[in-house]
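Continuing the batch. This is chain 6 of the set; chains 1 through 5 are on the previous pages. Same settings as before, nothing changed between runs. Recording input and output for traceability.
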Amino acid sequence: MSEALKRIEAVDVFRGIIVIKFLFSNALGSFTRESEIPFALKHNQGNALLLSDFTAALFAFLIGIGLAISYSRRIAKGQKLSEIFIAYAKRFGMLLVVGLILDSVSYSKLTTQNPELIVAWGVLQTLAVAGAIAALTILFSNAIRIAIALVILLVYGYLLLNNASFFDLINKSLHGGPVGAISFGAISIFGLIAGSIVLQKSEWQKLQKLSLIAIALFALAMFVSTIIPFNKLLVTPSYSLITSAVGFALMAIIYYMVEIKKVNSSIIKKFGANALFAWIIQYPLIYYPLGKLYKFQFASFLEGMALSLAFVIVVYVLIIFAEKKGIRLAL
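Output for chain 6:
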């Protein structure tokens, strides 16, 4: 089987790790009293870059990786470019609509609790816009993609620093809103580059290129952070660069462990192969019931940890059940 057509387990494992992380973190934030969650486990804390701030960005990065693999498979099967772009338009359009539907139940409550909120916007919608932006660069070389991503971040950062209306629009929008999704689009373009590298033949050249780009982006991110700090809420350029650097580094490490050292990761891979199903299932299991009962953040930290772990296990059981029934929703 060609490199383009075979399933790359490392990508599923990478996605699975991030899925488990967001399931656990989202559950912990929903169950646990805000005052009892350690600062290191929080997110969206302004200019403080915390572990949970990487989750959404790494999903955007993985959208780009998946796009590279999907495109290579479609080309290998002989699909026309028009068919491919129509498929991507449907895919990201569907993701946008699903996100809007899932989050619509919470919108009135969000705007009531925060009257300054201009746009209530979810992560799925952000991923849809970011993926669409990356798809527009699918025919370009990696060098041109890098240039496009950097130009996006340069313009975005300039407007953040010099245009008060632009800043307010993002600052008063949940998850940065549709405009903040543009910066996530740069992350997805970097993910597309990583995916194209993963599809190359030489195993060690893959690791070398992924590692070198990770180092270069990390250095650039640290420099840019002296001008505009890491901030997930504003999706600042430094934030997009540092999360992309981490994405390249993780892809290199996970590829080495899974594809070269053959480390068993079957459970994690299940989460990665069913990412959208795992995302959607949060709503009927946590958000809608707790919202109906007005019982968000009711537990102590230890209780919240236990409930969150139990929730991840329940989702895994449901994933296995769904697979047996032939239900498969990929992100």
